[in-house]
Structures are given as structure tokens and as C-alpha cells.
User: What shape does this take?
Amino acid sequence: MGIHLRAYNGKLKVTGRMDLCTPVLQEEIVKRSEQLIELLSPEVPEPLAPYFYRLIKVDEVREVVGIAEQMGISLRQTPVNGGWLIEITNHRMSKGAKKK
Assistant: This one.
């Protein structure tokens, strides 16, 4: 329940109980949409980049999962029309953050 924000194809999607979204909150969401998109969009690390934003084959799924495991990145694999889509499921750290 409530309002849900997500980034999809570089755009901010707002769904849920829009009746709970006050005009002030709507203005803030619009004003900060670029920041929200960046926050909600996991950055694709360079070694994984060739596998994203397209359908991949089964043997590529094995490759990308192996690379992701070595990097400590969690992935979701979704079968779609004869191929697979890959999604990063754990959040990235901000550029200035340090690992504990």
C-alpha cells in the first residue's frame, strides 16, 4: 500500500495509491526526478555491461552469473521469448561510500 517509485528505461514511474500523493509531494517528485532515477537505477559494472539491455542466451546466463558472483552482485534472471533478461537485485553503493 502507498506510493511506489521505480526507475524503468531511464524514466521515473510512480504507481500505487495516488490519492495519498499530495500536491506538495507531487511537486517534490517532479523536481527531484533525476535524483530519484539515479538512486533507483543500479549502475551496471563494466564486466557485466555486454549482458544488459538485451535478451541473452542460456550460455550467456551462465557466464554473467559467474562474473556477478565473483563481484558479489546479486542478479535476477527472467526467461522471455526464447532468451533471458538480467537484472541487478542488490543496490549499488554511492560513489563516496566505503565498504564496512
